Amino acid sequence: MRIGFLGAGRIGAFHAEALLATPGVSDLLIADTDTARATELADRIGSRAAESVDAVFAAGVDAVVIATATASHADLIVRAALAGLPAYCEKPIALDLAGTVRALREVETAGTLLQMGFQRRFDAGYRTAREALRDGRLGRLHTIRALTSDPAPPPAAYLPLSGGLFRDCLVHDFDAVRWLTGREVVEVFATGTSGGAAFFREAGDVDTAAALLTLDDGTLVTATATRYNGAGYDVRMELAGERDQLVVGLDARTPFTSAEPGGPAAPAHPWGGFLERFAPAYRAELAAFVEAAGGAAPNPCSGEEALHALLAAEACELSRAEHRPVRIAEFGERIAELG
Fold first, then answer.
1. What is the CATH number of domain 121-278+308-328?
2. For position 339, what pLDDT does the model report?
3. Whole-model pTM?
């Protein structure tokens, strides 16, 4: 399979190298708005660079991987659909509901495959937790506690392009909750603070956030995130049932220190970032795309799945702004109008 690869930044470089090592991939044709960066990446991993995105689409590739800046995702998804090409895209589809729905309608009309990048679905711990929930080992699930904590803020220039902490960061937790439980979010109540660097307030964003989600079976979910976790990169999910509790992300590199006498000390090498923590999951996710694009497996994460996660994030932003509970159903009429 010849793959057109769009985007040669940090996550793009990781994905490109992983794809070249994936069975079934014969070649990558890499394009980036910075042609020198695309050439450097292609030379380093033993692939080829294209002079432009147009050149990639004109080259007769079999599939497209989109790892470009967020603002370009929707247009590239539409372009792949119109070209009849299966596509993998890093989340999000777009930073707004209108752009997301527009792209999804084009994919639906074209009948092409769109796999969205929610790598936690391929993480060993999350997959074990899903099996435990599905086979009833925990009993009735009543509480989920999820957290995502970055060790340090991103560059100031990134924030206006990110969509905010709920859409950029906690959207992964919202997708994981839906995927693990098989339930839908029906209501959220969210808040956030920005006591750190001034550029969060200037971007209208927050550096720390918390949300309470109610699922359609009554399960309660707390989801928190921060850009300031100096101990390291921390992603965990606790699932509490009537019979037992299970924790995802608790290992020898989880960045915390016990306050209990004789409790575990801080890890010598805590997780430093998402690429390190989820490297095996990213590789598995891309391998699944190659299989799905070739017709050998179903799509593991469709664009519609990404829309559901985005709706939870949108509801959280509205709740934060208006200081009230927000039901997901409030967005139904808006989606119908956009469609």
1. 3.30.360.10
2. 64
3. 0.95
